Amino acid sequence: TPDLRHNINKNLCLFFLTTICNYLMTLLKDCKLILRNKKVIIIGAGIAGLTAAMKLSTSGVSVEVYEQHEKPGGKIRYFKSKAGPIDAGPTVLTMYNVFENLFNSCGHDINENLDFIKEEIIARHWWRDQSTLDLYSSFEKNFEEIKKFAGHKSALEFEKFNKFSESLFDFFKDPIIMSPKPKIFPLFLNSFVYWKLLKELLIKNKNLYNYLSENFSDYRLKQLFSRYSTYVGGSPFMSPNILSLIWNVECQGVWRVKGGMYNLAKEIESVARKSDTQFFYKSKVKKILVKNNKITGIELNDSRVIHSNTVIFNGDPKALLDGLVGKDVKKAVSTKNVQKRSLSAYVWSFSAKTKGLKLRHHNVLFNKNYKNEFEDIKKGEIPKDPTLYICAQGNNNDPYPKENVLGRFEIIINGSPVSLNKTYNKQKEYAKCKEITFSILESMGLKIDLKPSEEMLTTPEEFNLMFPGSQGSLYGRTPHGITSTFMRPKNRNKIQGLLLVGGGTHPGAGIPMACLSGRHAAEMILKDLSLI
After folding, report:
1. Are the beta carbons of 369 and 312 closer than 8 angstroms?
2. 453, 426 contact by CB (below 8 A)
3. Helix (H) or strand (E) holding 126
4. The model scores a pTM over 0.85
5. Which residue of 37, 200, 264, 350 lies most exposed, with the fewest beta carbons within 10 A?
6. What is the spatial distance between Cα 100 and Cα 94, in angstroms, rounded to a whole number?
7. Cβ(208)–Cβ(226) under 8 Å?
């Protein structure tokens, strides 16, 4: 009968659907078992290593992170103080969407446990003649501010530079900045649209400062926009004018993380932990183990061996070349990948009361002669008259700096990488840096209620000890030269199963770039496992 046939067909369909579902569930369990047996070891818990751990573990891969220090973050450091934790590393967060996309791709909301504050003023800039200029995340506002600051001609010059910076970013964004491997072919395809831009870059091929000298009549604006090369560890007198694009990155928005930048590192670590990533702190890796040009695991300082055929190295690539993690991985990078070295820094971190200058979160105090600063650095000396960057972080109760209220401060002076032939004396470096720093601050009208101590200063030599193989350079290879972007190590290399991440690798220095390098490496592994 029709009713009987209908019931039989219905029951057969249910039977087949149940059988198929059970089969798929078995496959899924087997897949999870395979993933958990596929262990990835990450050396270093900097932002790139943390990003890779989060991406892999939330995709079901077993991850173990080994870090020589006692906490995560790498160069994202902090010190405790009476006013709260002081950021003592990177303070400028740009490209917020990079982090938002990372969290979304891992099934998490970045704003659930983190509060991001977009700065109205990107930075306040000061000169010795007491002139000051605020810049914003708004072209129209910046045009008017520069017009008031240096006249209509300068405002028009800024408009031209702003367009150049924007075009550079658009030109390089997809094939270079966001790509796991720099792609030349798309650049050639775009060259028909951007031929004027290429003429400026390739034919004229000027360094950043010379380019700005031709395009700005006011020396203060030359100083201001040329300082962006120092964001990636370069001198404006030796870096290519390609680095003008950094202005476009910053003018799209600057954020701070409530409670300090370190909270970002902690939250990424927390998400990774919830997805079963195991973190081992105070665990220094002695060797990366290789057999027949394939990774087999790592050996710790206590002689324990951890087996894995995939290792992500989140450290300075020069440490590999120097044999600091075993001679078998030296060929993973070449000299051109890591030499010459980028800038280092002298970093003050302290809490104090101030009065005088009305500080914002980000402040730049320029010197009289910009070129002399970089000539001193070239000689390996502390600049006699440096540009000072001041991050005024307020306190736990109020993140904005107030006069005569205890606040947190980080002051950064550009410095040279460590010379391997130079004798280091912290006491002498401290005394010299103290005299230079605080005499400049006082001369420019900022009074600080503070008795400086050696513990408040981190020197290039101390950065070298914190980050082995770096020579104190905070940005890896120098960005000097028009082809420098293509010289940085990529994620993959000659050794099968070894991937490199961090600010010393492609796509470059800075928190967003390091985050991208970690995500690229994780996605390469997931692709190898046919998970994406």
Report:
1. no
2. no
3. strand 121-126
4. yes
5. 37
6. 12
7. yes
Structure tokens belonging to residue 186? 């798309």
The span from the CA of 112 to the CA of 104, in Å, is 11
- Helix (H/G/I), strand (E/B), else coil: 157: helix
Amino acid sitting at position 185: F
Token pair of 476, please? Answer: 């890896």
Find tokens 């006013």 and name the residue: 83
Closest CA to 294 of 309, 304, 284: 309
- Which tokens is 359 given? 């500080």
The residue type found at 122 is: I
Q: What is the pLDDT of residues 472-520, one digit of tens each?
A: 999 999 999 988 989 999 999 999 999 999 999 999 999 999 999 999 9
The pLDDT tens digits for 307-365 are 999 999 999 999 999 999 999 999 999 999 999 999 999 999 999 999 999 999 999 99
Tokens coding 212: 């700005």
Looking up tokens 């600057």 gives: 254
CA distance 368 to 346: 20
Beta bridge partners of 306: 298
> What contacts 24+ positions apart, CB below 8 Å, involve 76-79?
76/46, 76/47, 76/261, 76/262, 76/264, 76/265, 76/511, 77/262, 78/260, 78/261, 78/262, 79/349
Q: Report CA Rg, the chain.
A: 26
Q: What is the 3-state secondary structure (H, E, C) of 211-268?
A: HHHHHCCCHHHHHHHHHHHHHHCCCCCCCEHHHHHHHHHHHCCCEEECCCCHHHHHHH
